[in-house]
C-alpha cells in the first residue's frame, strides 16, 4: 500500500531525476530511507557521464546498502525510485537485502513514453556444460576437505 509519505518521497526521487537532466545525465533518480523515513542516500543515473552501463541509481543504492548497512538494517530500508528498477538493478536490490521498493513509473509506462527504453534484445545462452570441471572451484570453496 502506498501512503502519503511514500508519495512525498517518490516526488523527491522524481525531483532527483529532473535534476539529473539539468546535469546532462539520464532522467532517473532514487533514494533510500530508513524505517523512520529519514533519507540515508540518494543517487541519479550517471551511465553517460561515467561511461558505465551499471551506473543506475537503484544499483548504486543497492551497493551502498550492502556495503554500509548490516543485513537487519538494510531489511528495514525502503528504496524510492522514479522508475521501476530494471532487471539488472532488481538483482542487485535482492542481493543487497533492501526491504522494500516503491516506484513511480512502471517499466511498461516508461517504454510507452520512450520506446527505446524497452529495446533490449535477449542474449543467447548455451549451457550447462563441463559440469565436472566447473564444479571443482565451487567444491573447493564451499566444501573444502
Ligand atoms: Zn537499472
Write a brief structural summary.
The protein has 145 residues and is of the alpha+beta class. Helices cover 48% and strands 16% of the residues.
Written description of the protein model:
This protein is an alpha+beta fold and 145 residues long. The chain has a single domain, classed as Cytidine Deaminase, domain 2 (3-Layer(aba) Sandwich). It is built from 7 helices and 4 strands, in the order H-E-E-H-H-H-E-H-E-H-H. The protein has a 4-stranded mixed sheet with strand order 2-1-3-4, sandwiched between helices. Strand 3, helix 5 (87-96) and strand 4 (100-105) form a beta-alpha-beta unit. Helix 3 runs parallel beside helix 5. The protein is globular, with a radius of gyration of 18 Å. Residues 56, 58-59, 85-86, 88-89 line the site of zinc ion.
How many structural domains?
A: 1
> How many individual helices?
7
Using the alpha-carbon principal axes, give the shape.
globular
Overall strand count = 4
Average predicted local confidence, pLDDT? 97
Say what the CATH topology is: Cytidine Deaminase, domain 2
Poorly predicted spans: none
Rounded radius of gyration (Å): 18 Å
The largest sheet has its strands arranged as: 2-1-3-4
Query: Helix coverage percent of residues?
Result: 40-55%
Give the CATH level 1 class: Alpha Beta
Strand content: 15-25%
Bound molecules: zinc ion
Named CATH architecture: 3-Layer(aba) Sandwich
Straight-line distance between termini = 49 Å
Domain CMP/dCMP-type deaminase: 4-121
Organism: Streptomyces avermitilis
Pfam families: dCMP_cyt_deam_1 (PF00383)
Protein name: tRNA-specific adenosine deaminase
Amino acid at each position: 500500500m502506498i501512503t502519503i509519505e511514500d508519495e512525498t518521497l517518490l516526488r523527491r526521487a522524481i525531483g532527483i531525476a529532473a535534476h539529473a537532466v539539468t546535469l546532462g545525465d539520464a532522467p532517473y533518480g532514487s533514494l533510500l530511507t530508513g524505517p523512520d523515513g529519514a533519507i540515508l542516500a540518494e543517487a541519479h543515473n550517471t551511465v553517460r557521464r561515467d561511461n558505465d552501463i551499471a551506473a543506475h541509481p537503484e544499483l548504486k543504492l543497492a551497493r551502498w546498502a550492502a556495503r554500509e548497512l548490516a543485513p537487519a538494517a538494510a531489511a528495514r530500508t525502503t528504496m524510492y525510485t522514479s522508475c521501476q528498477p530494471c532487471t539488472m538493478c532488481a538483482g542487485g536490490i535482492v542481493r543487497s537485502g533492501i526491504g522494500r521498493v516503491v516506484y513511480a513509473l512502471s517499466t511498461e509506462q516508461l517504454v510507452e513514453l520512450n520506446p527505446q527504453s524497452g529495446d533490449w534484445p535477449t542474449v543467447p545462452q548455451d549451457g550447462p556444460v563441463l559440469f565436472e570441471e566447473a564444479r571443482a572451484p565451487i567444491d573447493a570453496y564451499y566444501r573444502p576437505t
